[in-house]
Amino acid sequence: MDDRTEPSAEELGARLFRALGSPIRLQMLRAIAQEDRCVHALVDLTGASQPLVSQHLRVLRQANLLQARKVGREMHYRLADQHIAHIVADAMAHAAEHRPPN
């Protein structure tokens, strides 16, 4: 018998927020929310290296935030569902409204 228990909703939520806890990953998710993107488009958008972009994509996929599909020789990434776009947009709006004073 397996003694492992399923993670709680709080643990799953914390994992989601850890995956969102990177400015580059937020930038990538905002772009992918507009349209499916391939790795080289995300490299151009972020200015990050291809290995770094790929590493961030892996984190987002492991958190079930992205889905990938092969188009020719490239992988194209899309949001797993529209909840992610709403979470990111709400977080960005909240942050913009509550900027700390300089």
E-strand count: 3
Mean pLDDT: 93
- N- to C-terminal separation? 56 Å
Shape estimate = globular
How is the biggest beta sheet arranged? 3 strands, antiparallel
Low-confidence stretches: none
Please indicate the percent range of residues in DSSP E strands (runs of 2 or more): 5-15%
Rg, nearest Å: 15 Å
- Class by helix and strand content? alpha+beta
Portion in helices = 55-70%
Note the total helix count. Answer: 5
Strand order of the largest sheet: 1-3-2
Q: What is the H/E string?
A: HHEHHEEH
Description of the molecule:
With 102 residues, the chain is of the alpha+beta class. It is built from five helices and three strands. Strand 2 (66-71) and strand 3 (74-79) form a beta hairpin. It is globular. Keywords: DNA-binding, Transcription, Transcription regulation. This is ArsR/SmtB family transcription factor. It comes from Luteococcus peritonei. It holds the Pfam family HTH_5.
Short description:
The chain is an alpha+beta fold. It contains five helices and three strands; from the N terminus they run H-H-E-H-H-E-E-H. The model has no long low-confidence stretch (mean pLDDT 93).
